[in-house]
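haha ok so turns out i had the wrong file open the whole time. this is the CORRECT one, sorry everyone. sequence first:
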Amino acid sequence: MILKGKRGIIFGALDEKSIAWKVAEKAHAEGATFVLTNAPIALRMGTINKLAEATNSQIIAADVTKNEDIESLITKSMEILGGKLDFVLHSVGMSMNIRKGKAYTDLDYESMHKTIDISAMSFHRVMQLCMKQDAINEWGSVVTLSYIAAQRVFPDYNEMGDTKAMLESITRSFGYHYGKAKKVRVNSISQSPTKTTAGSGVKGFEGFYDYAEKMSPLGNASSEDCANYCITLFSDYTRMVTMQNLFHDGGFSFTGVSYEVVNV
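then structure:
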């Protein structure tokens, strides 16, 4: 029960494959109370009502590109939960160009703007509005999910690589300011390729997944393992960890080559 008494908001639980879904289950098991949120269209597509019932949580629809939606989400969450927040999970990402099958060298820039707004700027927006409302308790924790394509080239990951690099930069920059102002911690988790609904939609995903599995000495980290890591970052056991991009990938990020790849 390492989260007993803690309150939070969990963004992005779509279905049982979602990392955010697993985080919600783990947070509930560890004693936390929280509000679930996703875009209105995602709520219609997913099965989040099942998760809300299982975790005794309420659902609030919010478009992460609209300040008024986020402001309302924060206010309502504090009313529902009975106080300020202790943790926020930002599990939000979508590439409009990937959806349209556009190559990285032939991007539609209006679509790229939308990708950046949804997948990176929304993280800044959430924290900015939380700070303005003084919505997060001191020593609270904000976590977002990233991928190593922020540092390395994965050709079919498209503009999401650039977007994840921006997301990690926001983690550092806002983490500094939030830490100075309120001792709020801000971190990103660079997760293994994970068989979520969103991740599996990227062209060549199975190739990413299989290669990482062969390269990583521990193999790919599962969504359940990622959820466990998130819980530790929400807890008081990581109070001095902030502004970090934390690789959670079975060792992939620091492996130059593996026997399995060399001997193929």
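The domain at 7-250 is CATH 3.40.50.720 (Rossmann fold).
again sry for the mixup
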